[in-house]
Write a structure and sequence with these properties.
This protein has 311 residues and is an alpha/beta fold. The chain has eleven helices and five strands. The radius of gyration is 38 Å and the shape is elongated. This is IS481 family transposase.
């Protein structure tokens, strides 16, 4: 139920005073005019609800849609229930409609015949392929070191963190470089093969030009990079993830996000050697020896060590 407003109480008091002492005295007493009092006396039917303000919304407008336009819009909407606002407007314009797009939108909204929006198709992720043993597949990626972490002689330079993660054990190998190129990638691969205690069957990377020329804008897209040549020499399969889909390299991407929180937010580097030394200490102490939930609260070093013992 609508509440009784102060204006309604004022008008009721005004009418009662006018009935008792006359309209002229009521106009003086309530500081209004006689026409105002007569108007509300005519509207008053004994209930206070009759003294409520009525809607001032016009019943018609000189520029409102004509019956012919209404029929044209209704017929067009019935034939094109999913057409968007602009598409529907263009179709109407081709049949003599002359209203603006905002005018058509207001009419459609008022009539409740806006375009039906079909539900978005639900994304069904592909089942993740779990690895069975260390070295079955290793993810490799490059991280740009934040410039705010560089100070002293290193200020203004660009450093890069190469990262490799074994998908089975989550064991990680990192190295610092001054450039990210196919040569740096091949050097990192050689060091990774020496550091990892088991043979590596597959290496998974994104489509960056430090790994592949698959999407190079210049010639030679079919030629292997130095990184790919080194992979072939060692008999390691190279798997490229889907373009613009970094979640397919999710383990190494997540580790880089953790690096921002645990390492780069609190450390500063004065040179490439200083950066490499701090990065190695952090990776050994705070990553490879840190218990992880996916590993049953064991560290990557423990998982890899236990597997080697079982051989």
């Amino acid at each position: 139920m609508a509440s009784i407003t102060q204006d309604m109480r004022y008008r009721l008091s005004l009418i009662h005073y006018a009935d008792k002492y006359g309209v002229s005295k009521a106009a003086v007493r309530y500081k209004t005019n006689r026409q105002y009092i007569y108007r509300w006396k005519r509207r008053f039917d004994g209930s206070i609800e009759s003294l409520r303000d009525r809607s001032r919304k016009p019943h018609h407008h000189p520029n409102q849609h004509t019956d012919a336009e209404r029929k044209l819009i209704s017929d067009m909407r019935r034939r094109n229930p999913d057409a968007g606002l602009v598409v529907l407007w263009v179709k109407l314009m081709q049949r003599g409609y002359s209203r603006s797009i905002p005018g058509l939108y207001r009419f459609l909204r008022k009539q409740g015949i806006l375009a039906r929006r079909p539900p978005n198709p639900k994304y069904i992720p592909k089942p993740y392929e779990a690895m069975s043993y260390p070295g079955q597949r290793i993810q490799i990626d490059v991280k740009f070191v934040p410039s705010v972490c560089l100070t002293g002689d290193a200020k203004g330079k660009r450093f890069y963190q190469y990262t490799a993660i074994d998908e089975f054990s989550r064991w990680r190998f990192v190295e610092a470089f001054e450039e990210h190129s196919s040569y740096s990638s091949s050097q990192f691969l050689e060091h990774l093969i020496k550091a990892f205690p088991l043979p590596i069957e597959c290496v998974q990377t994104d489509n960056g030009q430090e790994f592949t020329k698959r999407f190079a804008s210049y010639g030679g897209c079919d030629k292997p990079t130095l990184f790919q040549v080194r992979l072939q020499q060692h008999g390691i399969r190279h798997k490229l993830i889907r373009p613009f889909t970094p979640r397919h390299n999710g383990k190494v991407e997540r580790s880089h996000r953790k690096d921002n929180e645990r390492f780069y937010a609190t450390h500063r580097f004065y040179s490439l050697e200083d950066f490499g030394r701090q990065l190695k200490i952090y990776n050994t102490r705070d990553y490879n020896r840190f218990p992880m939930r996916p590993l049953g609260w064991k560290s990557p070093a423990e998982i890899l060590k236990n597997y080697l013992r079982s051989l």
